[in-house]
Design goal:
Layout: H1 12-22, H2 39-103, H3 108-114, H4 118-198, E1 226-227, E2 245-248, E3 254-256, E4 261-267, E5 274-280, E6 284-294, E7 301-302, E8 307-311, E9 322-327, E10 335-336, H5 338-343
Antiparallel strand pairs: 1-2, 2-9, 3-8, 4-5, 4-7, 5-6, 6-8, 6-9, 9-10
């Protein structure tokens, strides 16, 4: 299943930065090496830009939903507050009407002269006045609460609408980047197939390497993936049982060295197409096959997580994926199941 890693903050500056990135030329020329020589790094760059745009879009969409929920909640509270204020105003009206009826519309002095018990009447008058003042104060407080809620609702609604606009802009930018990425992937795949058919491996491309954490001695060979054909499974594509674990990823996805070691072999042709074999301490070897490009040369030292190539469909492949093997010799026929092997080294695959 995919293993997403998300959470950067959506800011207007990012839109400007991504717009500049999206406007970069995509003709596969690096300025000094002729057409096509920068295609691998270009795909890797576009892949990262598309992933960044997707993360930002998803964060923005979630933020917009949160602001929308706040606006609706404030609206609900505001409706309740208005109903409460209306009820208090009705209470004020009832008090005023009752006071008028009890006095018959006469001035207070006349009512005192005509009353059987003037003191009792005065006590009642004071009680009515206090009730009137209390309800009047409550109405004032509720009106102020209404104003605060209305301001909160307006701010939440404004933030929601602003985020919706940004998300629409980011969605268009994301689509533009993905279109460029798809075109670059197609060219990368075509060039890799031509190289394999001609029997000459393409030279190593130099990719901008990610930050590698020294406390992770082993990693999954790709960062975001979906597991497909597993070790030992059968099928028409293999003469025998499947000897590795397949990771379904798009063409051009950066492929990482699972652990530190030395590049033992870079080759192309045959069932595995373009492939890299890395030798590790302890007598183990890892293989990365069906690549579209390689980023290392034979004899290079690599660290865990270093990009050593890009996924593709070369060789005996029915679709874009990485074929990954763990072996006890450099050659085919000594493979172990990679899933429990990596799990034992702190890298569960799911």
């Amino acid at each position: 299943m995919p293993s997403p890693r998300r959470r950067p903050l959506l800011v207007p500056v990012l839109l400007c930065a991504l717009a500049v990135l999206a406007a970069r030329p995509t003709d596969g020329t690096d300025g000094d090496g002729g057409p096509g020589t920068a295609l691998g790094p270009q795909v890797a760059r576009l892949y990262e830009e598309a992933a960044t745009a997707t993360r930002q879009y998803e964060d923005g969409r979630r933020s917009a939903e949160e602001q929308r929920a706040k606006a609706l909640e404030y609206e609900r509270l505001l409706d309740g507050q208005r109903q409460k204020t209306g009820a208090l105003r009705e209470d004020l009206g009832r008090i005023a009407r009752a006071q008028y009826r009890s006095g018959g519309g006469l001035p207070l002095t006349a009512r005192m002269l005509l009353a059987d018990d003037p003191e009792e009447m005065m006590r009642g008058q004071r009680a009515v006045t206090r009730a009137h003042q209390a309800v009047d104060r409550a109405v004032g407080e509720n009106l102020r609460a209404e104003a605060r809620l209305a301001a909160d609702e307006a701010r939440a609604r404004s933030a929601w609408q602003t985020l919706e606009k940004r998300n629409a802009d980011l969605a268009r930018l994301k689509k533009k980047i993905e279109g460029k990425l798809e075109a670059a992937r197609s060219r990368l795949e075509g060039r890799a197939d031509s190289s394999v058919a001609a029997g000459s491996c393409p030279g190593a491309v130099r990719l901008d390497q990610p930050d590698i954490t020294a406390d992770r001695p082993w990693v999954a060979p790709v960062e975001t993936y979906e597991l497909s054909a597993s070790f030992g499974s059968g099928g028409s594509r293999w003469a025998n049982r499947h000897t590795g674990q397949d990771f379904a990823v798009p063409v051009g996805t950066p492929v990482r060295a699972a652990g530190a070691g030395r590049v033992l072999k870079v080759s192309c042709g045959g069932a595995f197409g373009i492939q890299v074999v890395v030798q590790h301490a302890g007598g183990y070897y890892t293989q990365y096959a069906h690549l579209a490009a390689v980023a290392v040369d034979q004899g290079d030292r690599v660290g865990a997580g270093q990009w050593i190539g890009q996924s593709g469909t070369t060789g005996n492949s029915t679709g874009p994926h990485l074929h990954f093997e763990v072996r006890v010799t450099p050659e085919t026929g000594s493979a172990l199941d990679p899933v429990p092997w990596l799990s034992a080294r702190g890298v569960p695959l799911s």
